[in-house]
Amino acid sequence: xxxxxxxxxxxxxxxxxxxxxxxxxxxxxxxxxxxxxxxxxxxxxxxxxxxxxxxxxxxxxxxxxxxxxxxxxxxxxxxxxxxxxxxxxxxxxxxxxxxxxxxxxxxxxxxxxxxxxxxxxxxxxxxxxxxxxxxxxxxxxxxxxxxxxxxxxxxxxxxxxxxxxxxxxxxxxxxxxxxxxxxxxxxxxxxxxxxxxxxxxxxxxxxxxxxxxxxxxxxxxxxxxxxxxxxxxxxxxxxxxxxxxxxxxxxxxxxxxxxxxxxxxxxxxxxxxxxxxxxxxxxxxxxxxxxxxxxxxxxxxxxx
Amino acid sequence: xxxxxxxxxxxxxxxxxxxxxxxxxxxxxxxxxxxxxxxxxxxxxxxxxxxxxxxxxxxxxxxxxxxxxxxxxxxxxxxxxxxxxxxxxxxxxxxxxxxxxxxxxxxxxxxxxxxxxxxxxxxxxxxxxxxxxxxxxxxxxxxxxxxxxxxxxxxxxxxxxxxxxxxxxxxxxxxxxxxxxxxxxxxxxxxxxxxxxxxxxxxxxxxxxxxxxxxxxxxxxxxxxxxxxxxxxxxxxxxxxxxxxxxxxxxxxxxxxxxxxxxxxxxxxxxxxxxxxxxxxxxxxxxxxxxxxxxxxxxxxxxxxxxxxxxxxxxxxxxxxxxxxxxxxxxxxxxxxxxxxxxxxxxxxxxxxxxxxxxxxxxxxxxxxxxxxxxxxxxxxxxxxxxxxxxxxxxxxxx
Lengths: 304, 399
Description:
With 304 residues, chain A is an alpha/beta fold. Chain A has helices at residues 25-37, 49-54, 74-87, 101-106, 109-118, 164-169, 184-194, 210-213, 220-229, 247-255, 261-265, 276-303, and strands at residues 41-45, 65-68, 94-100, 123-128, 175-180, 201-206, 236-239, 242-245. The two termini of chain A are 21 Å apart.
């Protein structure tokens, strides 16, 4: 399934005009993601930038029925909606949770893990802007190493980020995907595919944040693409335990050429304290990882 | 049908008869036998409901909140630290105006760990916007659970049905199980004013400003404070609503009584002991003994603790010269919460104010002997009954 821009549904489920910051990549991800989810959806939204984007009572930025819930309870609330749909005999309604990285990798992880283990049938989407941006750019479990945040203000975060898709895949769920707001068609196809599976499905969306990451609003898509083209962030899906790169990341396999990670890191002021030597270290890690990918890609290609 | 069973089973039977549709719970002593019983009802097909075994109490209430938001009658149960772990969700459920019912098998809270009974768990949730009903025996547990759904759905405020851990939850007592058809007549299926629906979308519990804002048509909505005022208004409305529920219950089942308070030998009493839960019945024996000695004492058991029926309670205490409050909970740094509430009620509604004495007892399951109660109440049944420390502890044994 490869959707083109011409195939996207015309109906907009995100109203024009919302309260996101200028250049926020969540706006792209949400607009396209809702198109893939369709009208017959109940949404669960914990506190996050999305709560702000959705608007202030009594005006909502979405045309979908949505339930705002407490921070730690996103996945459990999705389960509650499913249970209600079942006992009231309603079918054909998707349940989707749409949380930020803090609401997924930190405070929301326990409930999400439990829902995976129970096999509850909903789609969990994490838009990862790599920090608590709504509260003023604090570090989260997915903030990358070296990033300056409001509570790693001088030296940057000392620890590497959690690999949330890998944590989700370890639950043995049928569908886990990593995509980016900079590649909306890749995102669209993954949401569509996720909905074809039972149980918890997980989609991680890399979501550039102009004020949090320190770049001009007009560069959100460019920064998102650089993350992928440098090999730092990968587009892939793990379908029934089979990992496969997709879209622009798959193209990198074919081209066998990554842009230097510096291009991505130097485009954002949050990495301003990183020395060239530190960037080289990251470059080495990325280069080595991708050489492994190239080798196994050649084996698969050679075998076919 | 009369049966002999535990308080937890009485609660489970009430939930089954009320046809709760979604149940989510996490195990905690002494609530567990209740949820085990519900699991058994559902797995055996005796009860049609979704049972979600969750990983925490926080999630248990999250599921009930979401399920009720989408139109399902929902139930959970917990105790002690489990209730405290729900605290955020407890407030959320009330603010979201969801007619949930929760049983609390009362237990003390840590630290240090205790699994035994007191009321600190539910009393500490007093100000969350939930209706709180305290049952004194097994019959009151099953009846209260059924009435709780009715009341919650009438005023759209969630209800906690509280009963003493072990003392009621784990003891076997005879009680009547109402007939299913009668319960169906008393409690029709849940018809939510709004249920989340893709065909009629709404964005629920969204960020609300201090002042109301215009919607797309220019109509001004409510602000946060107006929404919260409506919760208080409807909580107060729950007082007369409970009476209507009780009257209907009595007409269908032929039993029941004053739903707010349960007075015992209060009519001519000079001194009235006040308490919540099963302790009240132990106080009956004490009052009988004091009456034999010529002391005109009575007991007032408070069933409805929130909303606090202050006028009704002040009326029930009218004419007595002393009120003695026995409590298994404490507002640390002050006194027993029920004592404070009573004083407030008397200040506003009593023509001549009796003295109010306060005893703290039975924390963390410390045994409450009838002899201890007798001595404490007898000491307080005199014009100087409130002399000394305002809040006294019964049964303390420091070496």
